[in-house]
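Q: I'm writing up a methods section and want to include an example of the input and output format. Could you take the sequence below and give the corresponding predicted structure tokens, formatted cleanly so I can copy it straight into the document?
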Amino acid sequence: MSTSFKKFILIVAITLVAGYVSLPPEIPIPWTFNLGKYRIDKKIVRPNLNIKLGRVNVKKNFDLILGLDLAGGSHLVFEADTSKISGDKKNKALESARDIIEKRVNLFGVSEPVVQLSSFEGKNRILVELPGIKDTKQASDTIGKTAQLAFFEVEQASDSAKLKPTDLTGADLSLASVTFDQKSGKPSVSLEFTQEGGNKFGKITQESIGKPVAILLDNQVISAPVVQEKITDGKAVITGSFSLEEVKQLVIQLNAGALPLPIKLVEERTVGATLGQESLSKSIRAGIVGLSAVFIFMVLAYGRMGLVADASLIIFGVITLALYKLIPVVVTLPGVAGFMLSVAMAVDSNILIFERFKEERLKRDFAEALEVSFGRAWNSIRDANVATLITAFVLANPLDWNFLNISGPIRGFAFTLALGIAISLFTGIFVSRNLLRVFIRK
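A: Here is the clean output for your methods example:
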């Protein structure tokens, strides 16, 4: 078995695996077949990956994740107040705020949210995209509160009572959970402190027997229970006239941690799923028309070699879609544009090789001309793709340089473009070359 044929088998294997991953979850069939005892239903369901290796269970559903502009949902923009933070600590505080908001969003139950820092006219902003979430008010209330939890001793129980601060804060929390008052049945928040926090709480309750302990959230008293005895188990309950949704929001905020700086909502927008699906449908139609035109052009211009280029382009698309699902990549409209541009780069590689082949064929036999054309076209292909990768790197701005773009949609475009270029180098050089070696010998 020749080396070229072995590589061809490898290409087929990669394509089959990528094709399986790329399949939609369900493939509808226009009618039902009955073949004796066998029956083909109207839908073929692609089984998900579920492999158990000892104690390790590997699960993957291979679903394509759509971004906000395609799936619909909420787009929120918060402005961070960094006026009270020194210059050298601003970036760290902003990154911490982003991480805490991301935790809150994940606890909120959102699939594949986007939380990114941005700078607009000298103001620091945090962009939050929540696919599938339509209630922007609930989302902004959950995300936007600072959630600074504090405990105060009440020196005297009266309208003019003075609050004495303690060193017990939300940082001493181990877990917050939803519970219900045994007498009234009203929802409340159960708190469990760390060992150190439990010791602090025990000391506070010991010194406050017969007096209330005020619990404040963002400088607002939310509960002030009277201490009956010293509490040594490190647990407390926040009760009040809370609704169940308010309790759930508070639990999410406390478990994610307090924001290191205050933020305010400056923009909110709801994107309908219908609009997203319409945009996706139009993009798919445009892509099909464009690819069909490319396929026809390659066949007319290069004959059988053009057919090989078309096959290589199909393999490129299948592998790219599979990687979108495996990484996974959140697919947005700018990301679709990046993919289409990478398709053009993949075609460009084949055109450079084939034009070089025409020149080499005038003075060499087919096999030699084929190898030489790939070798000599490589420099041009490499330089063109490296230049585009550098541009994609600048657009993606992975180092979060303030003087460059940090917009989510542009980063999505840059990532899909860079990924597509990397795959196009594989299909343009490795796949096309070996397909030509196997199927076109003269």
